[in-house]
Amino acid sequence: FRSTESVQAIFDGVCAILTETLPHHTWAGIYLVEGNDLVLAAWRGPAATEHVRIPIGEGICGYAAAHGESIIVPDVSKDPRYLQCFAETRAEIVVPILAGDRVLGEIDVDSNQLNAFGAADQEILEELADRLASTILKGDRA
Ligand code: SME
User: Fold this and answer.
1) How many domains, in total, are found in the chain?
2) Which of 1, 15, 71, 76 registers the highest number of CB atoms within 10 A of its CB?
3) The CATH number of the domain where 19 resides is what?
4) Beta-bridge mates of residue 94
């Protein structure tokens, strides 16, 4: 059993690592599913996003949650699903946090570089998402 506080500390640490290790990762966040919405649980970056609650189905985030699949957007200006948070964002990756078929939440990373994310990033983030799924299920946030 993990307390809500320690689950939150893990989320905060993950967002810090995702932004501080790579300078072009300009923002990282973890959203959790709450009913029909994604709710921002942790984030790191220069500014808060106005999208703290995203209906499942809206935006890249909502699409990834609705379909339970990772999405790499090489150029956000060319993706009609994109919900803008930050003017500097050029590319985005969203990876669902899955427990079997159930979507618990997702990891969202923004970059200020076009084509910033590839298969290797997706693989690492999916591995991380698996670990976060265990963290969530062992904690009391699920
Ligand atoms: N761009 C996301 C919204 C979340 S912000 O990037 C933090 C989207 O299209 O769903």
Assistant:
1) 1
2) 15
3) 3.30.450.40
4) 71, 108
CA nearest ligand 1 atom 6, residue: 85
For 26-51, the pLDDT digits (tens) are 999 999 999 999 999 999 999 999 99
Local confidence band at 22 (pLDDT 50, 70, 90 cut-offs): confident
pLDDT of residue 55: 98
Q: Which long-range contacts (CB under 8 A, 24 or more apart) does 7-11 make?
A: 7/135, 7/136, 7/139, 7/140, 7/141, 8/41, 8/42, 10/132, 10/135, 11/41, 11/42, 11/132
Ligand 1 atom at minimal distance to the Cα of residue 85: 5
- C-alpha 88/C-alpha 78 separation (Å) is 15
Q: With 80 as the cut, is the pLDDT of residue 1 above it? A: no
Domain around 86: 4-138
